[in-house]
Design brief:
alpha/beta; 9 strands; globular; binds 3-hydroxybutanoyl-coenzyme A; 9-stranded mixed beta sheet
């Protein structure tokens, strides 16, 4: 028996609901972030449709969700038990998968986009979804580096558009950055805030600045750690040890690079280097470009600054 529902076997009510309460959530993109968002939304009682472009991507996400939800259940219920099994099966039962973004938003109260960090691709997606989704549906992007206002430009619902920026691993990290553009309505902001609270997250509000709050501070820190090693001041391992044991950080900068994805951080820093050409903090260190050219993206590819087993 399939563990997850598919759209062909299970559909939601098509009726448009004008209530501000978010119950039906569609998550577009099933990578690290999308899968994490879908999982936590389902765990916290929302009906979720998780969408990606092909079966292979969705299957990878299902495996990741299956593993993660077991860890959460184990922690929540102190080991294997009937309650833990019910928690897992209830959450999985609320999760539907699809490879068709347009047909998956018909009953959505909220759409969270977590696809590739490419403005044109995101705009194209939202233009299509804007025509297919009910008028009350709120659109949000989980982008970590692009302008929410520029993405929202692709739609006719800027008052129902904002940023919902989660942190990796989503099932563990408590923070949610909510980004308001000038057009985001009070109702939309309040609905996003309530949704974050219902997901068990603590939300902070930020303007539509590059990197919002956390990444704006963390990315320059990560880049300067690379420069430190490039200068030969210390080794990768010693920099990580110093920040963990001397700074109380859960991961050193190079472990964090490998955790987030060096390709993702290269993309973000190249984008910001163009936005802030005079700011040395955003200059891309050559090591990043080299690692990405070699396919060393971090944990997800098996090697980054460190090597990983299976
Ligand atoms: N799903 C469920 N539970 C998970 C999990 C996952 N994917 N990953 C870790 N956990 C749980 C484990 O079960 C464990 O629970 P326990 O304490 O009850 O046993 C706990 O988290 C700790 O996990 P581990 O023992 O495996 O490993 P660590 O102690 O090293 O913790 C970590 C892992 C939570 C990732 C921790 O190292 C950490 O907090 N690192 C910093 C992560 C961070 O900074 N994230 C933000 C990145 S920036 C970002 O996401 C923004 C984006 O725009 C790029």
């Amino acid at each position: 028996m399939a563990l997850f529902n598919s759209l062909s076997t299970r559909t939601f009510s098509q009726s448009a609901r004008m209530s501000a309460a978010i119950q039906n959530v569609t998550v577009i993109g099933s990578g690290l972030m999308g899968a994490g968002i879908a999982q936590v939304a389902a765990q916290t009682g929302h009906k979720v449709t998780m969408v990606d472009i092909d079966d292979a991507a969705v299957e990878k996400a299902q495996k990741r969700i299956g593993d993660s939800i077991q860890r959460i259940a184990k922690k929540k219920f102190g080991g294997e038990s009937a309650e833990a099994n019910k928690f897992i099966s209830d959450a999985i039962g609320r999760l539907t998968i699809s490879t068709d973004a347009v047909s998956s938003v018909g009953s959505a109260d909220l759409v969270v986009e977590a696809i590739v960090e490419n403005l044109d691709v995101k705009k194209k997606l939202f233009t299509q979804l804007d025509q297919a989704a009910p008028s009350h549906t709120i659109f949000a992007s989980n982008t970590s580096s692009l302008s929410i206002a520029k993405i929202a430009d692709a739609t006719n619902r800027k008052d129902r558009f904002g940023g919902l920026h989660f942190f990796n691993p989503v099932p563990v990290m408590k923070l949610l950055e909510i980004v308001r553009i000038s057009e985001t309505s009070e109702d939309t902001y309040n609905a996003m805030k309530t949704f974050g609270k219902n997901m068990g997250k603590v939300s902070v509000l930020c303007k539509d600045n590059p990197g919002f709050i956390a990444n704006r501070l963390v990315v320059p820190y990560l880049l300067s750690a690379v420069r430190m090693v490039e200068r030969g001041d210390a080794t990768t391992r010693d920099v990580d040890t110093a920040l963990k044991l001397g700074g109380g950080f859960p991961m050193g900068p190079f472990e964090l690079f490998d955790h987030i994805g060096i390709d993702t951080l290269l993309f973000v820093s190249e984008h910001w280097e163009k936005l802030f050409p005079d700011d040395q903090a955003f200059k891309v260190p050559p090591t990043l470009t080299k690692l990405v050219k070699e396919g060393k993206f971090g944990k997800k590819s098996g090697e980054g600054f460190y090597k990983y087993g299976n």
